[in-house]
Design goal:
Blueprint lengths: L2 H11 L3 E8 L5 E6 L6 H21 L8 E5 L3 E7 L5 E8 L4 H18 L2
Antiparallel strand pairs: 1-2, 1-5, 3-4, 4-5
Helix pairs in contact: 1-3
């Protein structure tokens, strides 16, 4: 399966999913995205979160922490943003769900599909 097919399959299993994408950390461009891109400017969100990932890496390095970040969670009253680093790559997986969604289930499904996403990367 290609990346879009994997993301679409993943999206069907995540209750309250708004959008998800796989994004280059280097420049913030998405290499694949699905979901409601009319309500959310997915390209802008991906670009901003690329900067968050870079700043997180800088912060950990400054603190002398050499372990990789598993994920970064940003919450608002209506939305959860889950940014998961894809190991051994220069990409992250950005998943946006409604605050009514299940963070635990979303994380579990991301772990379930991570190998498929990694395999589909360029």
């Amino acid at each position: 399966m290609n990346l879009i097919d994997i993301l679409e399959t993943f999206a069907q299993e995540v209750p309250s999913l708004i959008a998800c994408s796989v994004v280059s950390i280097a420049d913030g461009t998405s290499i694949g995205a699905v979901g409601d891109t009319q309500t959310f400017d997915a390209a802008a969100i991906d670009a901003y979160f690329a900067e968050v990932v870079k700043k997180n890496q800088t912060a950990l390095s400054t603190l002398g922490i050499d372990s990789a970040t598993e994920d970064i969670l940003v919450t608002s009253s209506s939305t959860l943003f889950l940014v998961r680093s894809l190991p051994q790559t220069s990409y992250f997986w950005n998943v946006i769900i409604s605050s009514r969604g299940s963070l635990g289930l979303t994380r579990a499904l991301m772990r379930k599909y991570e190998a498929d996403v990694l395999h589909a990367l360029p």
